[in-house]
Structures are given as structure tokens and as C-alpha cells.
Amino acid sequence: MLQCPYCATSISFTWTETNVKECTCGKVLRLKEGVLLNISLPAAGHSKNFIIPGSHGQWQGKDFTVTGRFVTTGEDSTFNYWNLIFTDGTQAYLGEGYGFYSILTPSTLKISVRYDKISGTGLNQYIDLNEGGKFYLIRSSDDLDIAVEGEIVLPDTASNTKISELCNPDGGFLTVIEFYMGITRYYDTVFTTFDELDFNSLTINEKAETHHCPKCKAPIVLKAAPYTVSLSCLQCGTNFNRSVKGNLNQTANNKEDFKGDIAIGTKGTLHGINFEVIGYSLKEELNPDESQWKEYVLWNRTHGFAFLSEFEGHWIYVKETARPPVTGQHFNNGFSWDGQQYQLYNAYSYKVVSYAGEHPYNVGKTKRYAVQEYIAPPQVWTSEEYDQSITWFLGEHIDSTEVYNTFPLQQSAPRQLGIGAVQPIGASGAKGFGKKFLLALGILLAIHIIIGLQHKNRLVLENVYPFGDTVNSVNIVSKKFYLEKSSSNLYFDITAPVDNNWFELSGSLINADNGKEYSFEKGVEYYSGTSDGERWTEGSTNSNVYLTAIPAGNYFLNLTGSRDPAGFNRLSSFSVKVLYDVRSDRNLIFAFIIFCIFGAIQYFMFYNKEKKRWNNSRYSPYNYES
Amino acid sequence: MNLNIFNQDNKLFPLRWIIIALAGVAGTLFYYDYTGQRMFSFQSQQSWNSSGPGYHK
């Protein structure tokens, strides 16, 4: 039986895989070669987390039990690594914090690169991890403190722990931890979601942390602790920073009075997540434009943070993403993601002019953030680079009406001006518009072909008619024929071998049942000659004419062909071919033309609005001088 | 299922006007093709009915 060397409490390990346990006396003990040693790590205390030692869940079809955690704390951040023991005896860590979830398992790659070489690599520079291939550094945190709760696996003694996160363009993600100086551990990291972990019997309470304002003594309730960094007293407006140990340190007061349009405490559901507004701020770009925008902090216990950003009445829903959309340094002016081309729209640093409520970052440090925005409306990727970390946020335009319906405003809505940075502006701006337009043309073609197949194309009359020597006209009366469709056409193909003269066919289609007549006249003329040594021709020996919208019934044709009585080459004969219910391809051509005109108008409107959108950007591809 | 393309939540919302235009043009094409008529045809087809008003002495 093992005993705590400090309080003599009996210690037993529930799991054969674990080697570190928190004693009831608060010491954290490590089992090494059958002996319990104090490893000088503090106990994390019984967490206010909704995940607790003893929680059960499932990952990729395997059941696991949470046995404990180690928690890392840096200057402005805290993150949990829950120790999971699966039913097959394997072990993994569940990285959890800020609404992110990832499973860390010891990497199967043979990597022998030391930690200092990795952390010394610049952001977005690649590191060759031998067998692991090329990875890019996206975050590096040094001098992290570790505290332990429950019973866990800790491969090394921990002191001044360092953690780096790397990813490769193929979707691979590595967490590199130096628990103790000189020993580097690699963990394959797979991101997941709270729902996918299928936790059972969890009690998700809003376990708020309560303080009292040192100035006005009013209670300050922190919903998002321990992630809250900057906050204010909602009673007296005094600003504070919360230390990682949970103490409030007063900071500079707001430079301007500012009241958000949405009140702190307002609750609503966006994208299927129940959020509460826990803070808002007024931010200003640090450049000659000095553009100001408002940002609202949304909080959900399991899904973490999201932000609503409002500029000139245009709203964007923003959420941090675990994986960057692009790696390397080749994306300065844009990059491709999910089939869309994102273009650099804005690059700036900013300051927080005024804020209230809780914020998961230190508002006093934002001047050091290098921010870049890449847009492909209705989405925007925003990168925030600071020291040794680059954080990516994916934003999407959200209609102001949806915002106001979800989070009722406490004052009048901001006036909408111009075109928003990622406001959708019509079909031609939509994803794959070109393909959809071609599809629409294909639909028109299909309609035309399908109906064309139904046409009878039936021969009604075909004959050659000679002129007598002494007469200049021929009269023809056809046999009676039946036209069966409720509405269709007759096509007349007239051929007359005229040569420097003319021919005219006048005809009547007569309904033998009711006497209704449909008549036409059509000329055929052809002239040729030589002028100034050049041969010219005009007209044709063939012509055609349609009678349309002919209802069903018994009909006969009365045709009269007349030739030019003058001239040397008098016409000797002419031929007429009459077809019933023929397809007219010109209908399709006109349909195409009308639809293309509409598409062109749409595109022209899109172009002008797009130009207007980019008017706010220093990286506009449009020329505004003309 | 949201079938209203004028609702912003509908995936086809950005394409709403092009869909309306397509429906209009396709409907017109169908009508002209089906009834054997020709679009924008201004030729001088005349019709009259011998059983209409008027009489012979």
C-alpha cells in the first residue's frame, strides 16, 4: 500500500496506465519505480468545469473515462488537458478550452527535432520534421504553469512547460510539448466537437465566478471565467484584468462613454447555439482612416465564444477556428479555401476605445495585434498575429433583421450605410454563378428539345408548279387536310429560280368548317450584276413563311403564284413545300438572348456594387479615378 | 424545409432574381414552342372570318 509522504494518506491508483495523482492534502504525487514522489506541481482544485473526473464519453466508437486533468496557464490564457482512459486501456488527452475540443495521442511519427528549434521558427515558416514532413508553426507558448486534478498520465516532471502547435497543408495537426527542459513530446491532434464526444451524465451549469467590485462593492459575475481576461464592473464602469489566479487588477478607464446596442445579459440562439451577450466594445483602427466598429462577445458554456461585429449597420458573425485556412507565407494578397478565392481586404492594428462586460483577451494589448482580413462574400477570414501566435477567425455576414430578432436592441438600430465588407449582393456574386448560369441555359435548351420532339413535322403539300406561256400567275387549290393540334403552325418553303426578276406567292389557309382564313404574301427575288468591275448579288431564290397559332380543324390551301411579267428571264416554274407543326429554333435563340441580357444586367449591377464595397479598402482592385 | 427563395436562410436566396428570370423565360419559351408560335415574329399574317358581320345582297 502506497502512502502520501506528506500526510500518510493511503494512495491507490485506480488506473494502471496513470502515474500522477493529486492527494487529498493538495500535494501532487508521481509514482516512479514503485515510490511516490512529490513533483512540486500545485493541485488544480476541483474544477468548475462541466467535465469532471469520472465523466464518461465516446470517441470514434470507443468509450472513455475522464480520470483527471492537467491545466496549463499562461499570461492571459488557460487550457485543460483531460486524461482519457479508453476501455481498451489506451490513453489520450482531451484538449479543452474556449469551446475547442481536440484529442491528443502520442505521435506515431518518428520525429527527433528538439523543441527549441520548433519554437524558434517564425510563424508560418515551415519546419522539416523528418518523417513527419513539413509543418508550419501557428502558436507557441512558453513558461506555462501546470496544475493537476485527479489521476493522470504525465510522461515527465513538469516545469516551465512549453507548448507549440503545428499544422501542415494536408490537414495534419501536431501539439508539441516540452514538459521538462530538453524532453520533447509530440502528439497527433484531431479536432472534434463537444457533441461528437457524446458525453453522458454531464451537468452543464452556468458556474459563474463572482467577485465584488473593489470600488463600488457591486457584485461582478463572470460567466466565462477562467477564460475572461478583461472585464468591467457593470455598476460603476471600472475596468479590470483578471489574473490567471482569479484576482482582479484595476486597469485604465474607458476613454469614451459607450453603450452597446445589445444589452449585456441578452440571450438568443444563433446558428443553433444558445448564446448570452457577456460584453461589448468599441474598436478603432490604428491608421489614418480611424474606422470604428462595435463588437459583441457571445458566450456558450460548451461552444465557447463567438463575436458579432457591426460596422455602419452591417453585421458579421465571427467564430475562432482551430485550424488555419492556409499555411505558409504565400497568401499575402489572398488564398483559396473551400473552393473560394479570398482576397486581402484590410490590414491594420487596432485599439479598444471603450468596453464593458467580459472579454477573453487583454484589451490593452490589441495595439500589438497585426490583423488581416480576407474576404469572399459572404465570408471573411481574419488573422490576428501577436508574438508567437496566429489566430484565425471565420466570419459570415448576418442579416441585421436576424440579429435584431435574436438579440433585441436596447436602443435604435444603427443606420445601414453603403455595402458591407461581406454583404451578399446578388446572384452574380454567389458561389459558382457561372456554372449555375450555364445550367439555366441548359434548362432552356432541354425545354426546347423536349417540346421539339413532340412536334409532328408532317408534310402537307409538296409540288412544282409551271407557269403557262401566256399567263403570269398560277392558282392552286389543295385537297382538304386535317390539322389536329389545338394550336400549331404551318411552314411554307418557297423556291423560285428567279434571275434578275421576282416572284410572289400569296396564300390563304381556309378552315373548311367555319370559313376562317389565314393569309400571307411572300416575295422571292434575286438580282445580280457587275458594278465597277465587282460582281454583286442581292436576294435569294428561296424564301419561307410561317402561319402560326392555327387551331385544329379541316383546312385547304388557296395559293396564287405571280411572276415578274417583264424581263428577259421570265420564271418558268416554282415549288412549294408545306410542313405542319414544325420546331422554331429562333424561339430558343430569343430565349437565350433575353436570359443573357438579364444575366448581363445582373453582372453590371454586381460589378458596380462590388466596386462600391471595395471603395472602403486600400487593397481595392478597382480604379476609381474615371 | 424552407422553399421560400426570398427568405435569406434559403441557400438559393442569392440566386432569387436569376431563378425568377429563368422561370419567366422558360415559361415563355414553353408557351411559344408548345403552341407553334414564333417569338418576335412581325410578319404580315392576316386572318378573317367569312361568317363575321356583313352580308351579300
In short:
The complex is a heterodimer of chains A (626) and B (57). Chain A is 10% helix and 47% strand.
Q: How does this model look, in words?
A:
Chain A is built from 4 helices and 41 strands. In chain A, the strands form 7 sheets. In chain A, strands 21, 22, 23, 24, 25, 26, 27, 28, 29, 30 and 31 form an 11-stranded antiparallel β-sheet that branches. Chain A has an 8-stranded antiparallel β-barrel with strand order 7-8-9-10-15-14-13-12. Chain A folds into 3 domains: 2-197, no CATH class; 209-422, no CATH class; 456-582, Mitogen Ypm (Jelly Rolls, Sandwich). In chain A, 33% of the residues are buried. The model of chain A has no long low-confidence stretch (mean pLDDT 91). Chain A is mostly beta strands and 626 residues long. Chain B has a domain at 1-36. Helices cover 33% and strands 7% of the residues of chain B. Chain B is elongated, with a radius of gyration of 22 Å. Chain B has one helix at 16-34; one strand at residues 46-49.
Give the secondary structure arrangement, pairings included:
The complex is a heterodimer of chains A (626) and B (57).
Chain A: E1 2-3, E2 10-11, E3 20-22, E4 28-32, E5 35-38, E6 56-59, E7 62-73, E8 78-86, E9 91-97, E10 100-106, H1 115-119, E11 126-128, E12 134-152, E13 161-167, E14 173-180, E15 183-192, E16 209-212, E17 219-222, E18 230-232, E19 239-242, E20 248-250, E21 267-270, E22 273-285, E23 292-300, E24 304-311, E25 314-321, E26 334-337, E27 340-348, E28 350-357, E29 370-376, E30 379-386, E31 389-398, H2 400-406, H3 433-454, E32 458-466, E33 473-477, E34 481-483, E35 488-495, E36 501-511, E37 516-531, E38 534-539, E39 542-550, E40 553-563, E41 573-580, H4 585-614
Helix pairs in contact in A: 3-4
Chain B: H1 16-34, E1 46-49
